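Input (structure):
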């Protein structure tokens, strides 16, 4: 059950921390990493996504637990992983345009890291092949499969098999496996989620077997995200790619009650105004909390019954019969509905340990470019 007690998030030295700030509770973060490892069945089964946290300190913790493969959405995230010492990094975004050139720069800058990319179109495969061979390097390639989300990928069938052969034959490319993200599956009912997960992965497995029967190497099968993590982890032939489970959030904590992770991130906000007897204004605007979802975009701890009546760039206005208990300056803790876009809005996180804010970590891969 999601812990929503104010006392679980309150910090002793809150007066020293400006708002709005994103707090990361290190003990809970460490526990989530341990639970991910236990659920996967071993570090070799994990290719965790770093797009949720974008923090090199988390990568160092994962590597210390034996994780050797990481998944990134951007070149900056991939560079962050390599700079932290990750042996293998998968760039799970098609290297189109100048991204392929930046990929080459990554390969050259971090020779100790083995990089992989995904492709779902022959033109992209040819483009990457031309760029890497011109630079005298090579790269692993996973075929990106559309298993039902219809956002990217190629359907696992004849065309996919033909494309895998194209990748296999192109210079500079090493066809090593398949990638399938089932982000459309997030049913609260576990039985429904299981049925949809099994239906989504069945054609992926069939394609893998077909390719192997044709004598092609398919050594990696990277699948899923956080909602299907417990389902795919029960298989022995899949690398699982959970991301949100590192920090957890109010959204998955509400809709995925079977996943036993701890909220390791919370927002610190303050009352800035009390314009009406039943209304308070907080400094938690669009620029501080992920706002791509409908309200509630954050759970205000202690004010769960408040009505959210206005949300703009720097302000969150709520109505509550207890407004008199919240004079200007009162700190309020909030759990974001979606942590991934929320952390991208903050240049740093305040690290809490032992009930006190101890240090600050720069959200390194919030930037689209680090050095390459």
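Output (sequence):
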């Amino acid at each position: 059950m999601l812990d929503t007690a104010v006392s679980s998030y309150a910090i002793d030295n809150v007066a020293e921390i400006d708002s709005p700030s994103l707090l990361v509770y290190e003990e809970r973060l460490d526990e989530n990493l341990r639970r991910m490892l236990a659920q996967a069945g071993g570090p070799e089964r994990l290719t965790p996504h770093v797009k949720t946290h974008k923090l090199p300190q988390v990568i160092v913790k994962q590597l210390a637990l034996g994780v050797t493969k990481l998944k990134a959405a951007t070149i900056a995230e991939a560079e962050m992983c390599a700079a932290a010492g990750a042996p293998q990094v998968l760039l799970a975004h098609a290297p189109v345009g100048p991204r392929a050139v930046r990929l080459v720069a990554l390969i050259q800058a971090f020779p100790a890291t083995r990089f992989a990319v995904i492709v779902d179109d022959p033109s992209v495969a040819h483009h990457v092949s031309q760029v890497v061979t011109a630079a005298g390097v090579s790269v692993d390639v996973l075929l990106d499969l559309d298993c039902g989300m219809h956002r990217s990928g190629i359907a696992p069938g004849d065309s996919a098999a033909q494309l895998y052969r194209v990748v296999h034959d192109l210079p500079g490319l090493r066809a090593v496996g398949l990638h399938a993200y089932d982000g459309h599956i997030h049913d609260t009912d576990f039985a429904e989620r299981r049925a949809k997960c099994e239906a989504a992965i069945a054609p992926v497995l069939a394609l893998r077997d077909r390719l192997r029967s044709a004598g092609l190497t398919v050594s990696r099968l990277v699948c899923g995200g956080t909602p299907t993590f417990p389902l795919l982890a029960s298989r022995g032939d899949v690398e699982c790619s959970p991301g949100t489970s590192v920090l957890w959030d109010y959204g998955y904590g509400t809709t995925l009650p079977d996943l036993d992770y701890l909220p390791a991130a919370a927002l610190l906000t303050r009352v800035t105004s009390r314009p009406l007897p039943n209304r308070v204004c907080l400094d938690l605007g669009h620029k501080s909390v992920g706002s791509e979802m409908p309200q509630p975009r954050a759970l205000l701890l202690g004010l769960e019954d408040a009505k959210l009546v206005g949300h703009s760039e720097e302000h969150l206005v709520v109505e509550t019969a207890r407004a008199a208990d919240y004079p200007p300056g009162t700190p309020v803790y909030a759990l974001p509905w979606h942590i991934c876009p929320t952390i991208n809005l903050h240049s740093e996180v305040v690290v809490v340990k032992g009930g006190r804010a101890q240090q600050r970590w720069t959200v390194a891969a919030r930037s689209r470019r680090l050095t390459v």
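Notes: Residues 190-213 form the longest helix (24 residues). The CA atoms of residues 35 and 103 lie 32 Å apart.
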